[in-house]
Amino acid sequence: MEVIQSVETLRERLERAGRVAFVPTMGNLHEGHLSLMRLARKHGDCVVASIFVNRLQFGPNEDFDRYPRTFEADREKLEREGVDVLFAPTEQEMYATPQVYRVQPPPVGDELDGQFRPGFFHGVCTVVLKLFNIVQPDIAVFGKKDRQQLKIVRGMVQQFNLPIQIVPGETVRADDGLALSSRNNYLTPVERTEAPRLYRMLREIADAIAGGRTDYANLEAAGRAELARHGWKVDYIAVRNGIGLRIPHPEGFDHPNLLIVLGAATLGATRLIDNVDVTPKDGED
Ligand code: AMP
Predict the structure, then answer these.
(1) For residue 142, what pLDDT is reported?
(2) Ligand 1 centroid vs 269 CA: distance in angstroms?
(3) What is the model's pLDDT at position 242?
(4) Hey, whose CA ends up nearest to atom 18 of ligand 1?
């Protein structure tokens, strides 16, 4: 595996690389990330991973400085997975001058995570667009773990006519259901045993909807209350239609197969997000 830091060198390396499949990450790699590398391998001749902790998508009081950076271990994992190229630019390489041009995400970017992390999707879309222009991949893999991100990136690719196929990867979970995340490292042992409640809660709501319930607001409120009772600070528990992430019709006209239940909540000092499909399915709506 070649480790490349400069845009120029990367461009040269990829000139005759065939079909390029790209997986952007912020590092501190776990099995979830590695599953995306395997998926990328199925779609491309040359798998490019990137590691870049993107300052633009962190709020002033968020964890940019303490975000786990484990480059050597990450490099070894990618090497073992047979990744062809690791693009690991410095901040200077990515933001040689202050990034004053930004991508304006669609209105849904101000909802859910965007409501609680103002500017987050501006930062995500801007860095993803830059990475897409640098790598010029044929396909790019994004995890369903970050469902709103996946949908917003997909919309950006469509509206800007980028010739890139976005491939969704299923969420990889620990045995107790907790979605793998770099931020799980922040959890204390006690919090780690409590953490799977978020997933269980989302699954319970999804199962209730699959069983015929359409009183989404009640289900959301009960979920929020239950998490709060166990010490969580809940940002949102939300039932949405997978198409456009719009709020479902209150009288249950949305087909349950299209519904998704999303949640974000903080346990101690750690903010966790997760989501489930009402009807589990491969791929994305
Ligand atoms: P991050 O390094 O957190 O920016 O994530 C990089 C990519 O990995 C994103 O597309 C995430 O959605 C994806 N990802 C993160 N956690 C998981 C997981 N548990 N399972 C599958 N994909 C994941």
Answers:
(1) 98
(2) 20
(3) 94
(4) 32
- DSSP track, the chain: -EEE--HHHHHHHHTT--SEEEEEE-S---HHHHHHHHHHHHH-SEEEEEE---GGGS-TTSSTTTS---HHHHHHHHHHHT-SEEE---HHHH-SS---------GGGGSTHHHHSTTHHHHHHHHHHHHHHHH--SEEEEEGGGHHHHHHHHHHHHHTT---EEEEEPPPB-TTSPBP-GGGGG--HHHHHHTTHHHHHHHHHHHHHHTT---HHHHHHHHHHHHHHTT-EEEEEEEEETTTTBPPPTTS-S-GGGEEEEEEEEETTEEEEEEEESS--SS--
From 28, 29, 33, 83, the mutation candidate for ligand 1 (largest count of ligand atoms within 8 A of CB) is 33
Residues in the chain predicted with pLDDT less than 50, given as ranges, are none
- Active-site option among 30, 33, 43, 122: 33
pLDDT at 124: 98
122 noted as active-site residue: no
User: 113 CA to middle of ligand 1, Å?
Assistant: 15
Give pLDDT, residue 173.
98
Output the pLDDT for position 49: 99
Return the pLDDT at 95. 98
